[in-house]
Specification:
about 90 residues, 5 helices, 2 strands
């Protein structure tokens, strides 16, 4: 979702109080994924490149468990905000 990338900062950096640039849209994996190749914009969050790289090295499920955050809650909030803007 282009809107998310243009209007929101990296979710992880925001949790840590850091300002980032160059945000990309990351579709959540694991339990939040519909199928092997199907990506749904309802389950995505903004991440900067360094934070996205963490997932490639550590694994997304493990990382969310380690920091104790459920990213789906934020993904739901973003999607609701996006839908409200379209009306």
């Amino acid at each position: 979702m282009k809107w998310v990338c243009e209007n929101k900062s990296c979710y992880i950096c925001s949790l840590e109080g850091i300002t980032t640039f160059g945000v990309q849209f990351h579709h959540l994996q694991g339990a939040y994924r519909i199928g092997a190749l199907i990506r749904n914009d309802k389950v995505g969050i903004p991440l900067c490149f360094p934070c996205h790289s963490i997932f490639q090295k550590r694994g997304e499920r493990l990382y969310w468990q380690e920091i104790g955050v459920d990213p789906k809650i934020y993904a739901d909030e973003l999607y609701e905000e996006y839908q409200a803007r379209k009306k």
